[in-house]
Design a protein that fits this description.
16 helices, 0% strand, flat, Hypothetical protein af1432, mainly alpha
């Protein structure tokens, strides 16, 4: 009975999905060959593997934009990831694309992010001679570090979508292209929402040249952007956005950089976080024996010390990085 379920689901894809969709039965496969699952097609299986990974769970304690905000309703790296997944799946379903592939890419796209958001990424990129880019690190975490160094052995299409989700990327599937746009839609809108919650801006502060196109509240902007992507991409071999909406979204993003992302009150603690990461990096470069077992194992298997240190630090949550800093650099009280 069970051996027929996966094949039945693959046949359903052929009947339901767009001819531009990525069909599970046509995947380019995994780095290591393995038997097919009897129930789940390959992209569903990848989605499940990512959800059950340790790195996925750690995202709940990693900064999205606002460093250590006091409040329960600000986004973390995990809630951002879930919002990207929701937006991407909505678009994928409307365009009759492969939802499982879309979801797998979305859930894994930021899994290699450092503690303290992009400020942490900038420090490691400066310190590491090979450079550090979170999209490449996401693939490395899932393929090299997870499962005690065995990796999750994901399909080519999932890895490609994760690696190419940034603006400069060029995903090989429409599902990857959907996630690439959904990521921008999600972070721009939830960053506006979080900034309003923090009292850093009001709806009236946002220039009308952007809100007149995109909408005058977070809900309307999300809805209009999603609808625009769908209407611009129907029956097309490329996922796109109309010129007016792309121009307005890019303009709003630049405005957010000038007013929230750089130099705003919410970013005042970033310098301290960056100094902390640099001190941790230098300490572990001098004391690689202090790395935990799985990262020492990576070095024994041929990973260079610098890369192993980057792997360890980038895998830390914000709270764990602070704990290690206090353990290593803050004097402890003592008594006779």
């Amino acid at each position: 009975m069970y051996s027929c379920i996966r094949e039945m689901l693959e046949n359903e894809e052929r009947l339901i999905l767009s001819p531009y969709a990525a069909f599970s039965s046509e995947s380019k496969g995994r780095g290591r060959e393995e038997p097919q699952d009897d129930i789940r097609p390959v992209y569903q299986r990848d989605r499940d593997r990512i959800i059950h990974s340790k790195a996925f769970r750690r995202m709940k304690h990693k900064t999205q934009v606002f460093l250590s905000p006091e409040g329960d309703h600000y986004r973390t790296r995990l809630t951002h990831t879930l919002e990207v997944s929701q937006i991407a799946r909505t678009i994928a379903r409307a365009l009759r694309l492969n939802e499982y592939l879309t979801e797998a890419i979305a859930l894994g796209h930021d899994i290699g992010h450092t503690p303290f958001g992009h400020s942490g990424e900038a420090v490691l990129n400066r310190l590491c001679r090979e450079g550090f880019v979170h999209s490449e690190q996401s693939v490395r975490v899932l393929e090299v570090i997870e499962k005690g160094g065995l990796g999750l052995n994901l399909t080519h299409e999932v890895k490609d979508g994760i690696r190419n989700h940034q603006t400069s990327g060029s995903p090989c599937t429409l599902e990857g292209q959907v996630v690439r746009l959904a990521d921008k839609i999600a972070y721009l809108n939830h960053d506006v929402d979080d900034a309003m919650r923090a009292g850093l801006l009001t709806e009236g502060d946002i220039p009308r040249e952007y809100t007149d196109v995109l909408g005058h509240n977070v809900h309307d902007r999300l809805s209009s952007l999603i609808h625009d992507v769908i209407s611009s991409s129907e029956n097309s071999s490329h996922i796109s956005m109309s010129g007016d909406f792309m121009e307005a979204m890019s303009g709003l993003r630049k405005w957010m950089f000038a007013n929230v992302y750089v130099g705003g009150k919410a970013k005042e603690e970033e310098g301290k976080a960056q100094q902390m990461i640099e001190l941790l990096f230098n300490y572990y470069m001098d004391h690689p024996e202090a790395l935990t077992g799985e990262y020492k194992d990576l070095m024994e298997k041929g990973t260079g010390k610098e890369r192993a240190v980057c792997d360890y630090i980038s895998g830390m949550t914000d709270t764990y990085a602070i704990e290690k800093f206090e353990e290593l650099f803050v004097p402890k009280g003592w008594k006779f």
